Amino acid sequence: MNIPKSFDKRLSYSDYLNLTDEERLEIIDGVPYNMTPAPSTKHQQVSMNLSYLLMDFFKEKKCEVFAAPFDVRLFSEGKADEEVYHVVQPDLSVICDKRKLDEKGCAGSPDLIIEILSPSSAKMDKLTKRNLYEEALVKEYWIVDPQNELVELYHLGENELYGKPDFFSAEDTIESILFNGLKLEGKKIFS
C-alpha cells in the first residue's frame, strides 16, 4: 500500500540512497511512500507486454525504454543528491534525451511515463503522480488499468498542462500523441 513512511525530516535522494533495500520506496516532495505489496500477476503481464511493444517500436529510434525498478529523479537538473526531493519508479519510462541518463537512472523528466494501476496504487497514480508528472512537464502520461482493461492517456498541451485524457479499451488502438506512429493494439497490451 502507498502509505507515507514515518521519518523525522524531509528525505532527499541522498537519504534515499542510504536506506536499506528491504522495501521499495518513492519520494514525493521529500515524503517517502512504500511501494509494497508486490504487483499482481496481471500487472506484471501487462508490464511485460507493454515493455515488449515499446522496445519493438523504439529499437530504431533515439529513445530508450526502462522498466521499474528504475529511479527517476524529477526536478533534479543541476542539483546535488541532497537537494533532490522527488524520486519515483514508474512502471515504464521512455527517455529520448540521453543526457538525462546516468548510472543512477534518469535525472529529469522522461518523455513518456506509464503507470500500471494496482488496487493499492490507484489513488497515488491517478492524483498525486498525475499532478507531479504534469508539474515536472512529462510530455505524455499513460495510466493503465489491467483490471478494467483501460488506458487513460494524458498529453502536455502548449500551456504546459494536461488536458482532458483520452480513454482507450482493450478493443481500441492506443495512439500516442507525442510519438508519431506509436499505435498499440489494446488486445496486445491486455492479453
From TrEMBL:
Lineage, top-rank taxon, reads Bacteria
Against Pfam families, the record matches this protein to: Uma2
Q: Read off the Gene3D superfamilies from this record.
A: tt1808, chain A (3.90.1570.10)
Q: Where is the Putative restriction endonuclease domain?
A: 15-183
Question: Per its record, how is this protein called by name?
Answer: Putative restriction endonuclease domain-containing protein
Q: Which organism is it from?
A: Compostibacillus humi
